[in-house]
Design brief:
- The protein is an alpha+beta fold.
- It is built from 17 helices and 23 strands.
- The strands form six sheets. The chain has a seven-stranded antiparallel sheet with strand order 3-2-4-1-10-9-11. The chain has a six-stranded antiparallel sheet with strand order 5-6-7-8-12-13, with helices on one face. A four-stranded parallel sheet has the order 17-20-21-22, sandwiched between helices.
């Protein structure tokens, strides 16, 4: 196994960003840096940029956080260029080594290409085998390199890079939101189901592509619209245009973008993330009323849901935990013992809020139960008289094949225990989850269908026939050529 699956939180996706300069004074490197900083919540293992300086590509990608990889000295040394794409990564497939960091830069007889990807293919193993049998040599274990090869192969016969992308989409199955850069074009691509978000913005006269709208505004830009599922958007010297030959299929945006993954200040496919989480809490209050003295949330994504629960139920809202802002997310720790210590350092209960109180504790989800159990124990030690634990998402029962890093039911607490067993394991007075019907209603204004396969086992498209990706997820050498 390449990861320890004992953490109690879902692992994020990745974040992609791109900018096409039309204003001479715009610094595309600095703009991408600000965009990646705003997307850091989507991945903390590695990050990178690729700059297009009049057709010459320069890249930097390393393990680490954005501010660690891109110091002032590093940024100053990069060419300003006229286009730039960036990526921050959490490894849902492939090992966390430098060779898997993105963007990928491909140098080809048809010209160079850089690519950044958010999502998971369901047929990457089959495509990889097909390409290797035809002579392809891969340098990473990432789905992204498979996508890059699929596009590159189509470039041999296609008349343009966008035509190559369009033809490659006929082969790709699963989740992929892409930013593709050629010598003269910047391209945004979203899979036909729209599993992962992707949007377009404007900064002065220049164009921006980002995983979330918060990255556009953080870079000083203005949100324009979402990329449609199946849409290819091309930016070049003539402006922008779209190819929609893959649009119109059944859509399935990951509902966990609203519950947990996206930043609350983002608007994803027409729905405010902050409002969706408050609505989840309100629906949770209707489905699971509790007699209590205070409602608290688990920082950060549980806070909005707790506020919604409080407003709907009339139970006062309180700040139950102080979060240490200077420590990374718990899943970064390399083993369970270190993670357990990190939970206590990261979250500290505020005794004045919970002591001698009947507490409603709201979190975004309960995946494996380990961290949740520790949080409940901390509340007990802080003097809570009762703890009623409510999740603003349904029970996590099935694997996700489209980007969330859960690939086995054996580690999911709800898939292996009854409600009463879970209540005892967590040490709570009562336990409740938002219903599947409820979570499907939280994203008011969203124009897409949502994927709830991790709760129901029913997915927008067929899952892979097998999930044995480990055959090509072998540990790469740290000295792999880049």
């Amino acid at each position: 196994m390449i990861k320890d699956y004992l953490d109690d939180k879902l692992h994020e996706e990745c974040g992609v960003f791109g900018v096409y300069r039309r204003d001479a004074e715009l610094d595309v490197v600095a703009t991408t840096y600000y965009g990646l900083y705003a997307l850091q919540h989507r991945g903390q293992e590695s990050c990178g940029m690729a700059v297009n300086d009049d057709g010459v590509f320069y890249k930097r990608r390393e393990l680490g956080l954005v501010n660690e990889v891109f110091t002032k000295e590093t940024l100053d040394a990069m060419p300003r260029g006229n286009m730039c794409i960036g990526h921050c990564r959490y490894a849902t497939t492939g090992t966390p080594v430098r060779a898997n960091a993105q963007p990928f830069v491909i140098r080809h007889i048809k010209g160079p290409m850089a690519l950044a990807h958010n999502g998971n293919l369901t047929n990457s193993a089959e495509l990889r085998a097909e390409f290797e049998l035809s002579g392809a040599i891969f340098h990473s274990t990432s789905d992204t390199e498979v996508i890059a090869y699929a596009i590159t192969r189509e470039r041999l016969t296609s008349g343009s890079i966008e035509r190559a992308v369009e033809q490659a989409m006929d082969k790709l199955k699963g989740a992929y939101s892409l930013v593709v850069m050629s010598p003269r074009k910047l391209i945004a691509v979203r899979d036909p189901q729209g599993f992962r978000p992707l949007c377009i913005g404007r900064l002065g006269g220049s164009d921006i592509i980002a995983s979330e709208s918060c990255a556009i505004t953080a870079a000083g830009g203005e949100f324009v619209r979402d990329v449609e599922p199946g849409e290819i958007v091309i930016f070049d010297e003539n402006g922008s245009r779209s190819i929609r030959t893959h649009c119109g299929q059944k859509t399935g945006l990951c509902v966990f973008e609203y519950v947990y993954i996206a930043r609350p200040d983002s608007v994803v496919d027409g729905a405010s993330v902050h409002r969706a989480r408050r609505r989840a809490g309100a629906l949770l209050a209707l489905e699971h009323p509790v007699q209590a003295d205070v409602v608290i949330g688990v920082p950060d994504s549980g806070l909005d849901a707790a506020l919604g629960y409080s407003q709907q139920s009339g139970i006062p809202y309180g700040i139950g935990f102080l979060k240490n802002k200077y420590i990374g997310r718990t899943f970064i720790q390399p083993n369970q013992k270190l993670r357990e210590n990190t939970v206590h350092i990261k979250l500290n209960p505020i005794s004045d809020t919970v002591k001698d109180k009947r507490v409603v504790l709201v979190d975004d989800s309960i995946v494996r139960g380990t961290t949740s159990k520790q949080i409940v124990q901390m509340l007990r030690e802080a003097g809570a008289k009762e703890v009623h634990f409510l999740s603003s998402a349904p029970e996590f029962l099935y694997p996700c094949y489209f980007g969330v890093d859960i690939d086995s039911r054996k580690h999911l607490i709800a898939a292996n225990h009854t409600m009463e067993e879970m209540r005892k394991i967590l040490g709570v007075d009562s336990l409740g989850f938002l219903s599947v019907e409820g979570v499907g209603k939280i994203a008011e204004g969203c124009g897409l269908g949502v994927c709830t396969g991790c709760f129901t086992g029913k997915y927008p498209i067929d899952p892979p026939a097998h999930r044995e990706k480990s055959k090509f997820e072998h540990k790469l050498s740290e000295n792999s050529n880049d």
